């Protein structure tokens, strides 16, 4: 599903957003750090198969809304 977008809104300072590659071996290929209130729009591409989020963030996808980092 190339082209799908996700919206990530940081709910605290220092939220890490990490892009992971697709293919035979999964590797980190991009990293961003967001501060509280910052928003990032990320896209799945031929190179990005997964996005890892560390920290408290709101994530919006076509499948719905998810709270990352909440217990």
Automatic annotation (TrEMBL):
Gene3D superfamilies: TRAP-like. Residues 3-68 form the Tryptophan RNA-binding attenuator protein domain. Keywords: RNA-binding, Transcription, Transcription regulation. GO terms for molecular function: RNA binding. GO terms for biological process: DNA-templated transcription termination; regulation of DNA-templated transcription. SUPFAM superfamilies: TRAP-like. Signal peptide: none annotated. The keyword Cell division does not apply. It comes from the Bacteria. Oligomer of 11 identical subunits arranged in doughnut-like structure. Belongs to the MtrB family. This is Transcription attenuation protein MtrB.
